[in-house]
TrEMBL record:
Lineage: Bacteria, Bacillati, Actinomycetota, Actinomycetes, Pseudonocardiales
Keywords, in A-Z order: Sugar transport, Transport
InterPro entries from the UniProt entry: Bact_solute-bd_prot1 (IPR050490), SBP (IPR006059), TAT_signal (IPR006311)
PROSITE patterns assigned: PROKAR_LIPOPROTEIN (PS51257), TAT (PS51318)
Domain of life of the organism encoding this protein: Bacteria
Stated name of the protein: Multiple sugar transport system substrate-binding protein
Length: 473
């Protein structure tokens, strides 16, 4: 079907009873890691009756290419060890049309058997469309083996008490600042800051003549910009929807105040020295690239940028202060509970038993370890006992202890305005965010629209999206 051509395909054919594979780099690309990936005997036993079977799989592309290669390696090992075939496609989670493509494929009967994707961003939409299989049996089996999954998963993967996604690996939220620049100016290194502190500190450490730009957050269409804008709005006391996830409440004084704060950063000449050239057209990879180029004093990102700086031995790694995020007038602690890439099995899957077995294999042991080592602190265990399964997770990086604690964050976190985060999974909010309504709103403010007017018009657009999802306003 149309759209498949946009996804790169990798097929792994099983031809022997057991196998441990290694990949060599080609074309100058990094080779997959030398982790001795193996399939546990109990899974080999469960796969005995599935020999000769095949599954199609979608993988949300990881920002570290070496981690994608490591994932391929794990799938190759499984395919060869079990005598099965796995066809894997990589897909960008930031293209804005991923759910639409999956919806079309399921309706046409041409969908893959399983996929993994951000539970926070996509699972609610797919469940609302009726495309997901109940996988509670798999999750309960895994609980007996691995303890509890990350606390956020119970919010984003569970509907009416049943699991429709299997937590795979945890992705923490984080912010990063240049601790050497802060120390030069006598600014404190803290566990978190207010958004106003971060803005003022960014200006203080900036020096365009030295190619030092203190602010590395864009509002251009991108997943990172969506996260930034939404976080400011929430910490100021606003929200897109109420706690049920069904009623649009976007147009509020708190949202207007947050949007005015953000807009002032990009329009007030006072802050021009702290904005790097081209920030108005950044995409999701731009803040990574500029952080690694050592010209930024602050950025917000998943741990992809941290992983890159470590694996590529970039000097910025030693000068990075990691902190959990920022606070606002309505919240005195950061909204930092992360998300998981989670497996879903589609209704109409040709081989659901094999799909579930692949998911059980990938969440732990050497299958996960190989991927995690190529994306340090970006790919982390979602399951509590997996954190104790290898010394790498306990001592491989100074940030691991804090990351594990983030998986255990008591939830929900409630603002002074009564919004409890994470809120109930909202297909409407997920769809509105994926359509980049928040970034479009900020672009209109930058172009001169009053914040109150921009919020009001965006509220109307969000209402349309929610009604398209079946939530009458």
């Amino acid at each position: 079907m149309e759209g498949k051509q946009d996804w790169s395909r990798r097929s792994f054919l099983g031809m022997s009873a057991l196998g441990v594979l290694g990949l060599t780099g080609c074309g100058g690309e990094p080779a997959a890691p030398q982790v001795d990936v193996q399939v546990p005997k109990e899974l080999l036993d469960q796969a005995a009756g599935l020999r000769g079977g095949s599954v199609g799989m979608l993988s949300q592309k990881l920002y570290a290419e070496a981690a994608n290669k490591a994932l391929d390696k794990s799938l190759q090992v499984f395919a060869q060890a079990t005598g099965t075939t796995i066809r894997n496609d990589l897909v960008s989670g930031d293209a804005g049309d991923m759910v639409a493509k999956m919806d079309a494929e399921v309706k046409a009967g041409t969908s893959r058997d399983l996929a993994f994707m951000s539970d926070r961003r996509f699972v609610g939409q797919l469940h609302n469309l009726g495309h997901l299989t109940d996988v509670t049996d798999v999750v309960e089996e895994m609980r007996k083996l691995y303890g509890e999954p990350a606390t956020e998963a119970a919010n984003y993967c569970v509907f009416d008490g049943r699991w429709y996604a299997i937590p795979y690996h945890f992705i923490a939220t984080g912010m990063y600042l240049r601790k050497d620049w802060y120390e030069e100016k006598g600014l404190p290194l803290k566990p978190h800051y207010t958004w106003e502190e971060l803005r003022d500190n960014a200006l203080a450490v900036s020096d365009p003549a030295k190619r030092r730009f203190g602010w590395g957050l864009t509002v251009n269409r991108s997943g990172d910009a969506n996260g930034f804008i939404n976080n400011v709005i929430n910490t100021y006391g606003g929200a897109m929807a109420d706690n049920t996830g069904t009623k649009v409440v976007f147009n509020s004084p708190e949202t207007v105040e947050a949007v005015a704060f953000i807009g002032d950063i990009y329009t007030n000449p006072k802050y021009a020295p702290m904005l790097p050239p081209g920030i108005g057209s950044w995409t999701d990879s731009s803040n990574n690239e500029n952080w690694l180029a050592q010209i930024l004093g602050l950025t917000l990102n998943q741990f992809s940028v941290y992983a890159d700086s470590k694996t590529k031995k970039n000097p910025v790694y030693a000068n990075t202060h990691v902190f959990n995020g920022a606070t606002g007038p309505a919240l005195d602690r950061p909204l930092a509970f992360g998300e998981s890439n989670s497996f879903v099995v589609f209704k109409g899957a040709k081989n659901p038993d094999l799909a579930k077995l692949v998911a059980k294999y990938m969440v732990s042991g050497s299958a996960l370890l190989g991927v995690a080592k190529e994306a340090p602190c970006l790919v982390n265990p979602s399951w509590d006992k997996v954190w104790d399964s290898d010394p790498y997770y306990t001592s491989g990086d100074p940030a691991f202890a804090a990351l594990r604690e983030q998986t255990r964050t008591p939830l929900p976190v409630t603002t002074k305005t009564g919004y409890a985060f994470p809120q109930a999974p909202s297909p409407g909010e997920q769809a509105a965010t994926a359509a980049y309504l928040l970034t479009d709103m900020m672009q209109s403010v930058i172009q001169g629209t009053r914040p109150a007017d921009a919020v009001a018009s965006t509220h109307a657009r969000i209402v349309q999206v929610f009604e398209q999802q079946g939530y009458k306003q």
